[in-house]
Design brief:
This protein has about 240 residues and is an alpha/beta fold. Helix content is about 40%, strand content about 25%. The strands form 2 sheets. A 6-stranded mixed β-sheet has the order 6-7-8-3-9-10, sandwiched between helices. Helix 4 crosses helix 5 and helix 5 packs parallel to helix 6. The structure holds adenosine-5'-diphosphate and magnesium ion (MG). The site of magnesium ion has 3 residues, from helix 1.
């Protein structure tokens, strides 16, 4: 369980998060909202790139914001980024292994964890292949493998299917749906593809201009008047 209380972030005159109160239960939860709503900023707060001006975040009864950011990764907080982060010059194996190299487990089990993560995301290829030789959908799956390797407790996915064709989005959905059961991690999915969010997330929270405007069962949230209004005039995603 992640419990967010009174979370606010300010950058000069901009308030990307404005007194956000929400909780995310086990399983996969959606986090949606128009562009600029504050979704990535929220992930940046959780992972320690951005320091909020107010608020608390408790994750499995630990004070996440009180933890140094490098400890958060070791504790089990993982994320993907909206812009691609897989390193093209490195192999698939090394891309995943570099995330896992500071864990306390021994080399043999680290190697097994890396291969497990690659196979979990359904990448049926030689792990020594360079990431630069892969297609966009496969590179995105490498990033998901980096987020699930080892023993993650919290997995944050920032638009993992952005720009992918329908078939690849479907493949991504199949992987995301298995993350909680396979890893035990609480997963938060940010995406603009409402089909993907609906198929992966029992519950969804909605941000608009840094404020939480709805939270609850995904189907109900997507029917909510305020949510529909927030999306009107931005993108016809609903
Ligand atoms: N480092 C930053 N400095 C100033 N403003 C920022 C910074 N990062 C994000 N913002 C602003 O914060 C708001 C929320 O951005 P973001 O969290 O990226 O939204 P989303 O991921 O929902 O599209 C936007 O208005 C954006 O321009
Ligand atoms: Mg974003």
């Amino acid at each position: 369980m992640i419990e967010v209380t009174g979370l606010s972030v300010r950058f000069g005159g901009v308030t990307p998060l404005d007194d956000m109160n929400v909780s995310f239960a086990e399983g996969t939860c959606g986090l949606i909202g128009p562009n600029g709503a504050g979704k990535t900023t929220f992930f940046n707060v959780l992972s320690g790139f951005v320091r909020p001006v107010a608020g608390t975040v408790r994750a499995f009864d630990q004070d996440l914001l009180g933890m140094a950011h490098f400890r958060r990764a070791r504790w089990g907080l993982r994320r993907t980024f909206q812009t691609e982060q897989a390193i093209e010059q490195l192999s698939v194996f090394d891309n995943v292994a570099m995330v896992h190299e500071h864990s306390k487990v021994g080399a043999a089990s680290r190697r097994k964890d890396v291969l497990d993560a690659i196979s979990f995301v359904g990448l049926d290829l030689d792990p020594q292949l360079r990431v630069g030789t892969l297609g966009a959908g496969e590179r995105r799956l490498v990033e998901v493998a980096r987020a699930v390797v080892g023993r993650p407790r919290v997995v944050l996915l920032d638009e993992p299917a952005a720009g992918l064709p329908d078939q690849e989005t479907e493949r991504m959905g199949e992987v995301i749906r298995q993350i909680p059961e396979h890893t035990g991690a609480l997963t938060i999915l940010v995406d603009h593809d409402m089909g993907l969010v609906s198929s992966c997330c029992e519950k969804t929270a909605v941000l608009d201009f840094g404020k939480l405007i709805a939270s609850g069962p995904t189907a109900e949230v997507l029917r909510d008047e305020r949510v529909i209004r927030a999306y009107l005039g931005t993108e016809s995603v609903l």
